[in-house]
Amino acid sequence: MRILGRVFGGRTPNLAKRLGYGAHKRLLIVHADDLGIAHAVNAAFIDGVATGLITSGSVIVPGRSLEEIAGFARAHPEADIGLHLTLTSDSGKEPWAPVASPSQVPSLIDGQGNLLPQWTSETRANLREVEIEMRAQIEKAYASGIRPTHLDSHRFRLQLSGLGVFEVYLRLAREYHLPALIPRHWFSRMPYLQPSLTDGDVVLDRMVIINGNVKPEQWSTFYCRALESLPPGVSEFLIHPGYDNAELQEFFEYRLPWGAAWRQRDFDFFTSDTFRDLLSKCDVQLITWREIAGRLNSRHVS
């Protein structure tokens, strides 16, 4: 049976060794994207973290529900919450405005002053403006009380949009001393990635993300197969948990890919006894970005 989806990554457990684990250890981050966009997404993340099975998440700072997730972060400083740096808007009904003043980032916004709904071959994003907006999002997160553990980016915009944008991403990660999401298998797709890195940067061995070709009834099978075939090293399951309710249905305008029902299926699987039991059966240890940064820093100091 062929299970459809996207699986990125390499087979060499270099990061696991840097973290002090054995060569055959299988480590997994279960990471929830898009915190801050709606209460239904924040609540699913918070409930998932309580199960111990969803270990990490990242926040869209321009989202309407930033303060809610920031309040959780302030009350739970041990939580593993990073920043989902965002340069495009998702919802036509509720587009996101830049955090920086629109006058500072004209190449990133539309005629209404909101972030562009997507980047196309015609988009000419000014790299200085990209850095201004990304820095503004990071600083707003800190001001809200979030102490981020890592950086990633919405729709992988900062990793997959060319060398110049990727260099902004790396520069900010290094400046703020935060690991940034970079999967090893992207090296072959984007040849500018690997030469830009240093030994101090973090590279995951594998990343798994489901896609729109997987039918709802195949959801559990896809994730079970991905977990059973997980190689040694540090991997991330990048998921999108949320509650399929009126709020989220309206936000996504009943969109199917990455919409409300999609997010409910992710939440249901990753908080299930099936997933918990499979972790034990496959001898997979859950890990967080916080632990990665802490272990690397302590080994560097020692």
SS summary, helix count: 13
Tally the structural domains: 1
Q: Strand fraction band?
A: 5-15%
In the CATH hierarchy, the architecture is Alpha-Beta Barrel
Distance between the termini: 48 Å
SSE ordering: EHEHEHEHEHHHHEHEHHHEH
Q: How many strands in all?
A: 8
Given this structure, which CATH class is correct? Alpha Beta
Query: Spans of 5+ residues with little confidence (pLDDT < 50)?
Result: 7-13
Radius of gyration, in Å, reads 18 Å
What does the main sheet amount to? 8 strands, mixed
Please describe the topology of this protein.
Elements: E1 6-9, H1 14-18, E2 26-35, H2 39-51, E3 56-59, H3 66-75, E4 81-85, H4 127-144, E5 151-153, H5 157-160, H6 163-175, H7 186-189, H8 193-196, E6 206-209, H9 219-228, E7 233-239, H10 246-251, H11 260-270, H12 273-281, E8 284-286, H13 289-301
Parallel strand pairs: 2-3, 2-7, 2-8, 3-4, 4-5, 6-7
Antiparallel strand pairs: 1-6
Walkthrough of the structure:
It is a single chain. This protein has 302 residues and is α/β, with parallel strands linked by helices. It has one domain: Glycoside hydrolase/deacetylase (TIM Barrel, Alpha-Beta Barrel), CATH 3.20.20.370. Helices cover 40% and strands 13% of the residues. It has helices at 14-18, 39-51, 66-75, 127-144, 157-160, 163-175, 186-189, 193-196, 219-228, 246-251, 260-270, 273-281, 289-301; strands at 6-9, 26-35, 56-59, 81-85, 151-153, 206-209, 233-239, 284-286. Strands 1, 2, 3, 4, 5, 6, 7 and 8 form an eight-stranded mixed sheet that branches. Helix 4 (127-144) packs parallel to helix 6 (163-175). It is globular, with a radius of gyration of 18 Å. The N and C termini lie far apart (48 Å).
